[in-house]
Amino acid sequence: MTISSTTRKAGPFTGNGIAVAFPFAFKVFTSADVLVVQAVTATNVETVKVLYTDYTVALNADQNANPGGTITMLVAPPTGTTLVATSQVGNLQPVDLANAGGFYPKVINDAFDRITIQIQQLAEQVGRSFKVSISSNSSAGNTIFDYMNAAAASAVASAASASSSGAYAAQSSAYALNSSGYASAAYASTMSAAASASAALTPTASAVALYLDAFPTNSFTTFTAMYVVGGWDLGSIAAASPFPNENALRRAMLSTGGGSFAFGTVP
After folding, report:
1. Burial class of residue 208, CB neighbours in 10 A (0-12, 13-18, 19+)
2. What's the Rg (C-alpha) of the chain?
3. Is the pTM of this model over 0.85?
4. Whole-angstrom Cα distance, residue 203 to residue 198?
5. What letters, b where the CB count within 10 A reaches 16 and e where it falls short, cover 179-202?
6. Which burial class, exposed, middle or buried, applies to 57 when counting CB atoms under 10 A from its CB (0-12, 13-18, 19+)?
7. Which letter does DSSP use for residue 33 in this model?
8. Which stretch of 111-125, 138-152, 193-207 has the lowest confidence by average pLDDT?
9. What is the pLDDT of residues 27-49, one digit of tens each?
């Protein structure tokens, strides 16, 4: 008979601690030709199981018309494991055709099938191996070495970049902290100076003009803060001053560059 399928592996089957029977559909000659491997999913650590100690094999009666059979594990593969089966037909040729002896078609067919199975086993293993393109002048070993070197160089470059980025981030953080500290110190100093000036001045129009002279037009917010700290409230003098509100005061500052103002009587 012919071998019409290239399948030479069954699984992976996921263990659940309950299932023990696992089918396979490739031709073998004896139960010993079946190889069973169990793997831990999290670590990929594999264990080759032992026939009759870990599992048994029931072959289908006609391996030509209905190849394969069923593997029965003596202990159910637990959750977190997988099970894979393949064949391990030896790379031998046991058929001996004697001169003038019997010539049986089944013997010849099995001999050819054995060769095909051996080729399929090699193809399955090669399919899991590292290969280079057919046009490459490098061997697989050299190519792997080159890839490893390139990967190592890339890893070193990435680590250096990450380290540099970390250093820049640390510097930026330090600069931000320093800037924050400087700003806080400057603000505290200005507030302190304003409080001292407020204590020395009486709330008159000349005192207000002095504050306006001390701050440029782009410091209106600071001026307002100083003004409040100094004890004056723009809202409270709006009715008694030529500037009815903060917007009017801002326009006046912009037009004069922060010169002296006659506010009139400050309440």
Report:
1. buried
2. 45
3. no
4. 8
5. eeeeeeeeeeebeeebeebbeeee
6. buried
7. G
8. 193-207
9. 999 999 999 999 999 999 999 99
